[in-house]
Design goal:
This protein is an alpha+beta fold and about 180 residues long. It has two domains: about 35 residues; about 130 residues, Umud Fragment, subunit A, CATH 2.10.109.10. Helix content is about 25%, strand content about 30%. The chain has four helices and ten strands. Strands 1, 2, 3, 4, 7, 8, 9 and 10 form an eight-stranded antiparallel sheet that branches. The protein has a two-stranded antiparallel ribbon with strand order 5-6. Strand 9 and strand 10 form a beta hairpin. The chain is elongated, with a radius of gyration of 25 Å. The mean pLDDT is about 85.
Length: about 180
């Protein structure tokens, strides 16, 4: 009984520090590295990339109804470097104050003409105004998008969706070609 609780009560890790206590210089260096790591992680996830969670049927079959974790590139915020066909994450234009974010596909950039057909109504051509883009979900009958609330201001775009992490890891690419190539 004594052997069970006496000899084996200390872990190998604890015994290692009894034999070789760390020097204050090593502790300080480790502390600095931890702070540097936290700083760079904050910089990376706060200003360059973020991870988000999606739900809803509007982006089927590209994304699942529940449970997709996506990577968002903030380098493309406010419409920088966006093209028709890109998946974007933006603040919902109707509920801006709530902070609700949505993921949709860009189908029109400033100056482009798009068919603005509310679900079930005959379509009409609309020119996307300067400083805006036109977005729709991939699952048109179940998507609440620009056909309902109009063009989205580029200032509301928080980033471009570049990958799905879970489930089934997938990197998104814009496979659309300019019309001149067809």
């Amino acid at each position: 009984m004594n052997r069970l609780f006496g000899t084996f009560s200390k872990s190998r890790f604890a015994r290692l520090f009894e034999l070789h206590p760390p020097e204050p210089r090593v502790i300080a260096r480790t502390g600095v590295r931890v702070v540097q790591g936290i700083f760079f992680a904050h910089l990376f996830w706060g200003h360059f990339y973020s991870v988000g969670y999606t739900f809803g049927a509007s982006m089927l079959p590209t994304m699942n109804i529940l449970g997709d974790w996506i990577v968002i590139s903030k380098l493309h915020s406010r419409g920088r470097g966006m093209e028709v066909g890109d998946l974007v994450n933006y603040l919902h234009p109707v509920y801006v104050g709530s902070g609700e974010r949505v993921v949709k596909r860009i189908i029109g950039m400033p100056g482009d003409f798009v068919v603005a057909d509310p679900v079930g109504a005959p379509g009409k051509m609309v020119q996307v105004p300067e400083g805006h883009c036109w977005t729709t979900g991939d699952n048109l009958p179940f998507s609440h998008d620009s056909r309902n609330y109009g063009p989205v201001p580029l200032a509301l775009i928080r980033g471009k969706v570049i990958a799905r992490l879970f489930p089934n890891r997938l990197w998104f690419e814009n496979t659309l070609k300019p019309a001149e190539e067809y």
